[in-house]
Amino acid sequence: MKRLLALLVLACLLVGLTLAAPMLSGTGARAVSGINAKDPSKAGASLIYVDSKDFFRLFRDDTVKILTISISPEEWQGMLQDMARMRPIDDRMRTGNYRRATLTYEDKDGKITLENVGIRTKGNTSRILPQDGQGYHRAHFKIKFNETFDYEEDSQAYRELSQRSFMTLDALILKANMWNDPSFVHEKYAYDLMREAGLKVPQISMTKVIFKIGDKTVDYGVYSMVEPIDKSFLEKRYTNAQGNLYKSLWQNFGPATLEPITQSKAVGIKDWTKNYRPSYDLKTNKDNADHTVLLTFIEKLNSLDGEELKAYLEETFEVDTFLKFMALNMLLGMPDDYWAMGNNYYLYFNPQGKLEFLPYDYDQCLGSGWDGNLPRGLVSIATANILKWNNSAAILSGQPSSRPLVEKILSFDDYKDRYLKYLKDFSMAQDSPFSYSRFMALYESVEALYGPLMKNDTMESSTMTLSNEEWYFETKLRSVESQLAQLGY
Prior knowledge:
With 489 residues, the chain is of the alpha+beta class. The chain is 34% helix and 18% strand. The longest helix is centred in the last third of the chain and has 18 residues, at 469-486.
């Protein structure tokens, strides 16, 4: 094991990488910003860590990247069996068990191979078997670089694997993009837009994925490669990454609307083996779980009003970045978000700062994907009321539902004014970032690299194609401009 790791480190040095560079802040750290096609340090919210060249290499957009995942037939079948075993308690088969594989990453600068990585399928409502009687299917996957499998905690192998990272990441998400977004770039466009506005969102790029299952090679096609929101994500963006991070989803106990907690189990730590999935799932500090900060915030948000509430929000919550999120989310038209659904966001309680709202999962936006079960479908999203959005949570649950974080913030005139000005700046200012031409420039650059690589052995998502984007941009911009004018903006 030690010899293997030494060889890996040497290989990394030869191609200018540091495989397991620790995420550090403080002395010697430098601020670096976002990513773009040729120079990943040009745009976006600050990242804080010592050496960014390997992270930027993984997410740069001017070169083709190929991930080859080598897995034994026994481990591949084990991954399928792990899902099947979950069916009696979870019809979505959402196993959290990782299987052992070898990962080879390749781009124009060379190849890196990493053994003993963990892999499993991923997805909430979208999880599928990657192989069944009909053949291979483009499931979503999660790769974990510090998975320890069944090694004993006091073993050398456990210590080495538990501390390992790849390209400064602890894990990597591979999204198939085949149901919601035939263009393959909606989520990337959304994250790039948010990052440039100063929001903390994952980095995302494209990759070709190939599985080697024993002696059989299966081309799975082009995937989005997404940085997870986890401890590694926090360490890149906060000088103090020791706070509580909650993943907030519509799960077993209803949507994560931040309404008053009526079921204590709605807040907790997920246990996939029992299919216990809280709406507010603690992802950090699990050994000493204390939900006081979250429960206090929810209680204060709902019980306070007027100047007392405003003073509390100013002291504890990053209001301005949330207002930017609201504006960009309205433009992007993501129906599965906090505002419409009480879904798909994280909360980070920064011990040396304020609570911050972190959006994620934007493959459904820009006029494609799920329509929120709205009466007029995607038209309802494109023409949504900019002060009310849509309440899909109430439609789907059949129960009254409020979104207090939005509703109470918009009750303050100065916050509402700032939100509307952001909405105007992002959509109507000269060279505004939300535009069809900007989207098309991204699409064409990605298609030029990955379009020729789309054909695959699953026979699914074999082309990159446009759908409703031009209509959506035109309709959304016209609707927002009209509504802003009626409000005097």
